[in-house]
Design a protein that fits this description.
- By secondary structure, the chain is α/β, with parallel strands linked by helices.
- The C terminus is likely disordered.
- It starts with a strand and ends with a helix.
- It folds into 2 domains: about 210 residues, Rossmann fold, CATH 3.40.50; about 140 residues, Rossmann fold.
- Helix 1 runs parallel beside helix 2 and helix 7 packs across helix 11.
- Helix 5 links the parallel strand 5 and strand 6.
- It is built from 12 helices and 12 strands.
- Strands 3-2-1-4-5-6-7 form a 7-stranded parallel sheet, sandwiched between helices. Strands 9-8-10-11-12 form a 5-stranded parallel sheet, sandwiched between helices.
- The protein is globular, with a radius of gyration of 21 Å.
- About 45% of the residues lie in helices and about 15% in strands.
């Protein structure tokens, strides 16, 4: 049994839903896991996990600027003034009960401490430096990818093991990370899509400047009701429930839905691709990272289409869903198992390395 600290980026729920099956698998194998996260992700994991210590990370201002200059300006004005005190507090907490292993899902604050104090650590992300983009992407997407890579180099202290969780097999020869299929729970990978002709799922992680009536009318004309999740506009909210839906219940809803309309979170898109669910990603204006994610999935996945918020209309929505005429033939469901194998191999190597001095001492004493 090993003592593991699992640090999760608290921006949205994608990082938390990717970490959930890994945390459960590690706990099942009798490892002692403590989770560090913040915001909605912390509330979500507290509701999903029993008997797991979930601790609060310091809050900071997330930067979603479109330029490296804007990113650096936001970092300097909002993050650096609190950086030293946050790092000191986190260092005290982490070293007080030093873990045997740190796993960081796009949460770089604890990754820096692990690097400094030689704690074995794993970095996990959908993005990775050196990712090879499809040839037909727009020039603006290539610029945004370059900015993402630069930001990651500025922020990230690579661990002994760097894992990229992605459905796209486009690894660059210069990339040192290990690609695995999307990390998905078994209650998704062991079932199949079975639409009931009843409903469409709406999942927006922010309010979009679109006419929500277009979605309502599209569903009404086809005799479908709308099932809402995430932070949708007040005109579409049927309730103001602050509790996150259990993830397995959300997946069951996805498995029986006729379509999904959502903002382009990479983990939700991976889940929809694995299921084969017809999906329309609506990218917000002035957020090029989400536009890049949406275009990647729409170009690589036969069941996913992309519409920008500026283009959105009932006609565009109908056209996008009509364009989806097939579902993926095969989606690799081994991401969780592959990731667990890689992590346990690292733990075994670390355990063997740690045990070798004592073994040598025993031989000498004998």
């Amino acid at each position: 049994m090993m003592k593991i600290t699992y640090a999760i980026n608290g921006s949205g729920l994608g990082h938390a839903t990717r970490g959930l099956p890994l945390i459960q698998a590690l706990t099942e194998r009798q490892h002692n896991v403590s989770v560090y996260t913040k915001g909605l992700a912390k509330n979500f994991l507290q509701q999903q996990l029993d008997n797991t210590n979930i601790l609060e990370l310091p809050r900071d201002t997330q930067s979603y600027t479109n330029t490296l200059r804007g990113y650096c300006k936001t970092t300097l004005s909002n993050q650096l003034p609190l950086y030293r005190s946050q790092q000191q507090a986190l260092t005290t907490i982490l070293l007080k009960d030093r873990p045997d292993l740190l796993i960081s899902d796009d949460e770089h604050s604890l990754s820096r401490i692990a690097h400094k104090y030689h704690i074995p650590h794993v970095t996990l992300s959908f993005h990775c430096h050196g990712y090879e983009l499809p040839a037909n992407l727009l020039t603006s997407d290539r610029i945004q990818s370059y900015l993402l890579n630069t930001m990651m180099q500025l922020n990230l202290y690579p661990g002994q093991l760097c894992i990229q969780s992605t459905p796209f097999n486009r690894k660059s020869p210069t990339n040192k990370s290990i690609q695995v299929p999307p990390i998905l729970p078994r209650y998704l990978t062991q079932t199949s899509w079975n639409p009931q002709g009843t409903h469409i799922i709406i999942y927006f992680n922010q309010t979009l400047p679109i006419n929500h009536h277009d979605i309502t009318q599209y569903a009404k004309q086809r005799g479908l009701y709308l099932s809402f999740y995430g932070n949708t506009g007040q005109t579409l909210q049927s309730s103001n429930n602050q509790h996150a839906t259990p993830h397995h219940e959300f997946i069951q809803d996805l498995l029986t839905a006729d379509a999904l309309i959502c903002t382009p979170g990479s983990q939700l898109a991976c889940e929809a691709y694995a299921i084969g669910l017809p999906t329309v990603l609506i990218s917000p204006p002035r957020q090029r990272t989400q536009q890049l994610i949406a275009r990647l999935f729409s170009q690589q996945c036969c069941n996913i289409e992309h519409i920008t918020a500026r283009q959105f209309s009932q006609h565009c929505l109908a056209e996008a869903l009509n364009n989806i005429t097939e579902v993926p033939e095969h989606s690799d469901a081994s991401g969780l198992e592959q990731t667990m194998t890689l992590i346990e191999q690292l733990m075994d190597r670390h355990h063997s390395h740690s045990a070798s001095p004592s073994q040598t001492s025993t031989i000498i004493d004998a």
